Amino acid sequence: MNALRRNVLKGAAGASTVAIAIAAGMLKPTQAMAAWNAPAFDAKNVGDAMKGLGVSAPADSKDILIKAPDIAENGAVVPVEVTSKIAGTTSIAILAEKNGTPLVGDFTLSGGAQGFISTRIKMGQTSLVRAVVKAGGKSYTAAKEVKVTIGGCGG
Amino acid sequence: MAEPMRIRATMSGDVADIKVLMNHPMETGQRKDAKTGQLVPAHFIQDVTATINGATVLSANLGSGVSKNPYLGFKVKGPKAGDKVVVNWTDNKGDKNTAETAIA
Amino acid sequence: MKQRMIMKLLAGMTGLGIALGAATVHATPEGDRQELAKFYTSKYPNIKLEDYVYGALAFDADSKAQYEAIMEFPPFESEIEKGRRMWETPFKNGKTYASCLPNGGNQIAGNYPMFDEAQGKVVTLQDAINACRTANGEEAYKLSDMKTMGVLTAYMRTLSNGMIMNIKVESPKAVAAYEAGKKTFYSRSGQLNFACSSCHVQNAGNRLRSELISPAIGHAVHWPVFRGGDNLVTLQNRYTGCFKQVRAVPPPVGGTVMNNLEFFHSSLSNGLPMKASVFRK
Fold first, then answer.
1. Mean pLDDT of all residues in chain A?
2. More confident residue, A149 or B6
3. Three-state secondary structure along C97-155?
4. From the CA of A40, how many Å to the nearest CA of chain C?
5. Do B71 and C73 touch (CB under 8 A)?
6. pLDDT tens-place values along chain B, 104 residues long
7. Quick check: B59 and A111 CB within 8 A?
8. Is the peptide bond before B4 cis (omega within 30 degrees of 0)?
9. Cut 0.90: pTM above it
10. Between chains, do A79 and C70 touch, taking CB under 8 Å as contact?
C-alpha cells in the first residue's frame, strides 16, 4: 500500500488512478492533496528550485527577517527562523543555496498562521540561507550568509 | 515503530506558539555508512500538516536538508487555550506519524 | 599552517604554566579553585563565572544563541526518554535504581565523583549506578557503552539539574586522589606535549584554529553532552578525545587515572549549578 501511495503521489499516475485509490479506501483525500513538490526539492540549483516553487525574480524585501547564526556551531543542525512582516503572507520557503539540493522546506500558512517559521537545517558549506515568501500573488526574498566550519572540540 | 512526536503549544496573548519535534533520521541519500561504505538510502519526512480544531494552519513540504529529528516552530493567531492541535507527517517511504495536544 | 598554530600556542602558554604550577603546589582544593577562578575572571572581567557552565559558549554570543535555540526543544529528547524508561524499569528482583541510590537518585550527581573511604578510591556516578546493578543481581554496564550506560546517565543526571556541584575532598586519602588528578591535569603528555591545562587554563577563551577553547571551571556540571544534536559523549569519553587530540595514549575509561582526574576536574566546578544533558557542537 505504501508503495502504491508513493507511485500515486509521484505523479506518474493519472487523476483517475487517484480517484480509484481514494474510492478503494487506500488514500484519504487529505493525504492525496499534500503532494510533495519533487521538481522543486530535486532541483540542484537555486534557479531551478525557484522555478519548481513557481517563483521567478522575487523582489528583495526588508520585511523578511532571517535569524540564523553568523558561524554555524554544527552544519548538521543550524537553527533558522524566518519572520515575514509582509501582509497576507501565504508561504515561506527556506533554501540553503550551496546545498546539493538547495530547497530545504516550503511552508504553506493558512487559518491564522503568522508569517513565521522556525526550524533547523543541514548545511554542507558556507552559503547564503535564503527565504522566499509568497504574499498576495507576489513573491519576495531575503538572504543571510551562514559560515560553516569543520571541527568541534565542544566542552 | 517510529518514536513519538512531541508537540508543545502555548498561548502568548492571542497567538498560539506551537513547537513540534519529530523523530526521524532524515537521511539525504548522500551519506555513506561508516562500516559498509554503502550509501544510506534517502529516508526523510516529506509532508507535514498541522490543524487546529480540524482547520489546517500549516502544510509543509520538507526536503532532506532538514536536520535529523526535525524541529518546527510556528505561530497561529486566533485559537484559545484548550483547542486541539494535531500534527501529521509522512515520509518518502510512506511511513506516517501523528500526535496531538491541547493548547495550554 | 597547523604546525605554526601549535608552535604559537606552545610559545604563549609556557610562562603562565610555570607561574600557575608553582603557585598551586601546596594549596587546598578550595584554594586551587578560587585561584583558578581569579585567573579566569581577571583575564575576562566581562564574563561572569556562573556563565562558565556554558563552556566555550560563554565567550561567544552567536554560539550561545544557537545553543539556546536548540535547547528549546532538543533533538535528543527521545534519547533522554529512553534513559528514563531504563531508569524506571525495575531489576529482576523488583528493586530499582531509585531504591538503591541515596535520595532516590535525585539531586545527588553534584556529590560525584565521591571519595569512598571504605574502598579507598574515587567512585564516579557511573560506578554508583553499576554498584546498584551488581548489588541487585544485574550485570554491570560497560562504561563506554552509550546505548546503555550513556543513555541512562544522560537521563539520571537530569534528576540533579540545578543542584550545586559539591565535591568533598577531606581525608588524607581523598586529598591524595585529588592531587593525583591535579597532576594529570597539569602534566604535559603526548606527541604534541600538551597538558589539559595548556588548553583549558592558559588558552581558555582563545581560538585553536576554528575552535573556541572552554575554561576548566564549569566543565563538569553539564555532561554528558549530545554533540551535533545526537552523538552522546560522556565526560570520561571526552577526556579520551582530549588525550587523543594531543597524540597521547588515553588511560582506560573508569580506571584510577581517569577517575582521579574527574575528581579533581569536577571539584573545580564546586558552587556551580548542574545541567544535564546539553547540546554541544
1. 83
2. B6
3. HHHHCHHHHCCCHHHCCEEECCCCEEECHHHHHHHHHHHCCCCCCCCCCHHHHHHHHHH
4. 27
5. yes
6. 456 899 999 999 999 999 999 999 999 998 888 889 999 999 999 999 999 999 999 999 999 999 999 999 999 999 999 999 999 999 999 999 999 999 99
7. no
8. no
9. no
10. yes
Tell me which long-range contacts C193-197 makes (C-beta under 8 A, separation of at least 24).
Answer: C193/C10, C193/C246, C194/C246, C194/C248, C195/C17, C196/C242, C196/C261, C196/C265, C197/C17, C197/C20
The answer to whether B68 touches C226, Cβ cutoff 8 Å, is no
Rounded Cα distance, A111 and A116, in Å: 13
CATH class of C2-73+169-274: mainly alpha
Distance in angstroms (rounded) separating the CA atoms of residues B92 and B26 = 10
Homologous superfamily of C77-160 in CATH? Cytochrome c-like domain (1.10.760.10)
Contacts of A112 in chain B (CB under 8 A): 52, 57, 76-79
C-beta atoms of C73 and B23 within 8 A: no
| Domains of chain A as residue ranges with CATH | 2-33 (no CATH), 39-148 (2.60.40.2470)
> Angle CA(A2)–CA(A7)–CA(A13) in degrees, nearest 5?
140
Nearest CA distance, B74 vs chain C (angstrom): 13
C231 touches chain B (CB under 8 A): no
Superfamily name and number for B6-26+39-102: Immunoglobulins (2.60.40.10)
Which active-site residues of C does the annotation give?
242
pLDDT of C7 reads 53
ipTM of the complex: 0.94
Residue B94 bridge partners (DSSP): none
Which residue of chain A comes nearest to C280, CA vs CA?
A154
**Domain(s) of CATH 1.10.760.10: residues in chain C:** 2-73+169-274, 77-160
Question: Among all residues of chain C, which has the CA nearest to that of B69?
Answer: C75
